[in-house]
């Protein structure tokens, strides 16, 4: 038997399909799933029904329909079946796409979305803040796959000290809802900082476990803040709307939940500078207060009070000396003036007294016995020194003393006569 290469087999199948006229112009009815609008302009999607699916592509060179292709749309695709040899699968190359209604799952999703919105599950007032500096982060997703790897890589790259707690859950198919709900409740009981739930992209059927009522209620009732990262940015599940924060992808969820260590270090450095400045100002304030208290205490100490009293006493002494000097100067001036006045008065008094004395002297001189003696008269005293004024004061044979201007003489009375018999000049 001949052995064929993979390329030969795929090429043979391609030729068989290309030779089938029915497959070269065929219309297929189905529901769009996993629709991707590529950056190069091509649109890749899957057509499916209840039992099977087929890949489809609308090349950028083909006319576009008058509506945007989205998951869940029921459409009729007309085109040709071709084999992609490199990938070993066949697909329909769409030439024309017509709308055929809205998928049943999307109708159900819209109804559930309206129901949950009416009871407030999506309301902002029930959403919890995501911690800025989460240390322990729970993750509900599949053990294997790109989602958990992206979360681990981004988390450790942003903060190597963060602790990740994984609850390996089924994220699609039978048992997925129960597994996701158990994961949320288990991690919620561990008192973590935040929980990430999610998975990679997929069709609406693949993501349906995150639209079920049990999952939505578990997210809404959790006390731990939850970041939902289900599918890609274009996917929109009820879990995303209920969660406290919506992330476009699992990688974005890790960026939301995990704060960068460099940013934490910058914040710590900033706080350190602020605290250092606050402490420095506080120390300066306390130092100034202590200095004020020290100065006040010093001012109130006995030594300070004694020094103050000494200064006051010195000032008082200086003021007193100044006042005394001023007073003495005034008194000296007054004394000098009074002395001058007194001298003048004394001189006047002395002059007047001298004049009086001179007058009295003249009068005394006029009355003086010596004056009379100088004119030839004498002054007579008895033996006892008593003045003899009358002849009757003496007796005969009595001794007397006679004073003259040039001396005295003692005499004895031999005879006496009265005035009638003898007088001066007879």
The gist of it:
The protein has a 5-stranded mixed β-barrel with strand order 1-2-3-5-4. Strands 7-6-8-9-10 form a 5-stranded parallel beta sheet, sandwiched between helices. Helix content is 45%, strand content 21%. The chain has 4 domains: 6-102, Nucleic acid-binding proteins (OB fold (Dihydrolipoamide Acetyltransferase, E2P)); 108-259, Succinyl-CoA synthetase domains (Rossmann fold, 3-Layer(aba) Sandwich), CATH 3.40.50.261; 317-366; 371-412, no CATH class.
Folded structure, characterized:
This protein has 426 residues and is α/β, with parallel strands linked by helices. It has four domains: 6-102, Beta Barrel (OB fold (Dihydrolipoamide Acetyltransferase, E2P)); 108-259, Rossmann fold, CATH 3.40.50; 317-366; 371-412, no CATH class. It has eleven helices and 13 strands. It has helices at 6-18, 21-24, 104-118, 146-158, 176-188, 213-221, 238-242, 250-257, 261-300, 302-367, 369-373, and strands at 26-37, 43-48, 53-58, 73-84, 89-102, 136-141, 163-168, 194-199, 226-230, 245-246, 379-381, 399-404, 407-412. It has a five-stranded mixed β-barrel. Strands 7-6-8-9-10 form a five-stranded parallel β-sheet, with helices on both faces. The chain has a three-stranded antiparallel β-sheet with strand order 11-12-13.
């Amino acid at each position: 038997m001949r052995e064929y290469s993979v390329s030969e087999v795929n090429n043979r199948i391609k030729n068989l399909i290309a030779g089938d006229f029915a497959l070269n112009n065929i219309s297929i009815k189905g529901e769009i799933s996993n629709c991707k609008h590529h950056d190069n302009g091509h649109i890749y999607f899957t057509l499916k029904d209840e039992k099977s699916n087929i890949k489809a592509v609308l090349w950028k060179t083909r006319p576009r329909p008058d509506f945007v292709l989205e998951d869940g749309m029921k459409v009729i695709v007309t085109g040709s079946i071709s084999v992609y040899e490199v990938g070993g699968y066949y697909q329909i190359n769409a030439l024309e796409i017509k709308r055929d209604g809205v998928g049943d799952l999307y109708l159900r999703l819209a109804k559930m979305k309206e129901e949950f919105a009416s009871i407030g599950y999506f309301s902002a007032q029930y959403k919890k803040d995501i911690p800025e500096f989460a240390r322990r982060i729970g993750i509900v997703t599949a053990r294997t796959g790109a989602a958990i790897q992206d979360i681990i890589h981004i988390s450790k790259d942003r903060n190597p000290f963060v602790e990740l707690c994984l609850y390996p859950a089924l994220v699609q198919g039978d048992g997925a809802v129960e597994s996701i709900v158990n994961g949320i409740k288990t991690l919620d009981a561990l008192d973590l900082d935040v929980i990430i739930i999610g998975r990679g992209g997929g069709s609406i059927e693949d993501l349906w476990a995150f639209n079920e009522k049990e999952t939505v209620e578990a997210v809404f009732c959790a006390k731990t803040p939850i970041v939902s990262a289900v599918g890609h940015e274009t996917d929109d599940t009820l879990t995303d709307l209920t969660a406290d924060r919506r992330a476009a992808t699992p990688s974005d969820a890790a960026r939301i939940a995990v704060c960068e260590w460099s940013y934490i270090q910058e914040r710590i450095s900033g706080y350190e500078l602020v605290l250092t400045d606050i402490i420095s100002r506080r120390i300066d304030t306390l130092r100034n207060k202590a200095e004020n208290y020290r100065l006040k205490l010093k001012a109130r100490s006995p030594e300070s009070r004694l020094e103050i009293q000494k200064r006051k006493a010195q000032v008082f002494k200086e003021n007193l000396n100044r006042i005394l000097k001023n007073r003495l100067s005034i008194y000296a001036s007054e004394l000098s003036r009074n002395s001058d006045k007194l001298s003048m008065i004394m001189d006047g008094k002395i002059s007047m007294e001298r004049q009086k004395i001179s007058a009295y002297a003249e009068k005394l001189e006029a009355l003086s016995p010596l004056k009379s003696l100088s004119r030839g008269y004498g002054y007579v005293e008895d033996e006892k020194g008593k003045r003899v004024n009358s002849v009757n004061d003496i007796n005969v044979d009595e001794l007397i003393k006679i004073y003259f201007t040039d001396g005295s003489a003692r005499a004895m009375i031999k005879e006496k006569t009265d005035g009638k018999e003898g007088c001066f000049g007879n």
